[in-house]
Amino acid sequence: MIPFLKEAVTGLFSKPSTEGYPFTPKEAPVGYRGRIVFHADKCISCGMCERVCAGGAISTTSVETEEGLLVTRKFFLGSCTFCNTCADFCVKHAIELTQDYHMVARCEDDLVVTGTYLKKKPVKKAPPAACGEEPAAEGPKPRDDGLPVNDPAKCVYCTLCAKKCPAGALTVDRAAKTWTLDEDKCIACGTCHDVCPKKCIIM
């Protein structure tokens, strides 16, 4: 006991060797992947994050309303591996991994990140009123269901829309100059419209 008395007394008047957490929180290093932040206003409901999540930590539920589809996406931090794959695949940057590492909770709900947004129904345009002779057609018109339409007169078949489509709904053959839409896969997210360099996709 006596040999350690000096160290014991010295320790009373010196700073502790351990961190003072949680009273003195320490900043996470640059590049740390912590608590997820979901920007629901940016989400386009492509579902890519849920498909690539190795931990199965993402779930989606939806409810039909008069205005459209009310979508709720949940991220279960208890199952998340913080690999950042969901954020890497998100074309709209709606998912962000922050430097927040404070994830000790007594309630399971505190480890669930939730975001809800409304996916509005496509607006159907009324047909033009009959007034004399109809004007000559000026190219493809938007569809009533909100799915994309390609204007072959402008399209250069660069395949960028097909590469960026999160649902894999587009097939472009550059040699044959064909643009094909799989209506069953398309989610009308508008990504193809946004990335088209020739603005030949109409929605």
Q: Number of DSSP helices?
A: 5
How are the strands of the biggest sheet laid out side by side? 2-3-5
Structurally, the number of domains stands at 2
CATH architecture of the largest domain: 2-Layer Sandwich
- Uncertain runs: none
- At the fold tier of CATH, the topology name of the largest domain is Alpha-Beta Plaits
Secondary-structure element pattern, one letter each:
HEHEEHEEEHEEHE
Shape: elongated
Work out the oligomeric state of the chains in this entry.
single chain
Q: Tell me the distance between the termini.
A: 82 Å
Q: Roughly what fraction of the amino acids lie in strands?
A: 15-25%
Largest sheet: 3 strands, antiparallel
Number of strands: 9
Mean of pLDDT = 86
Question: Could you describe the 3D structure shown?
Answer:
There is one protein chain. The protein contains 5 helices and 9 strands. The chain is elongated. With 203 residues, it is α+β, with helices and mostly antiparallel strands. The chain has 2 domains: 27-120, Alpha-Beta Plaits (2-Layer Sandwich), CATH 3.30.70; 149-202, Alpha-Beta Plaits. The strands form 4 sheets. Strands 2-3-5 form a 3-stranded antiparallel β-sheet, with no helix packed on it. A two-stranded antiparallel sheet has the order 1-4. β2 (58-64) and β3 form a beta hairpin. It has helices at 5-12, 48-52, 85-89, 160-164, 191-195; strands at residues 36-38, 58-64, 68-76, 95-97, 112-120, 149-150, 170-173, 178-181, 201-202.
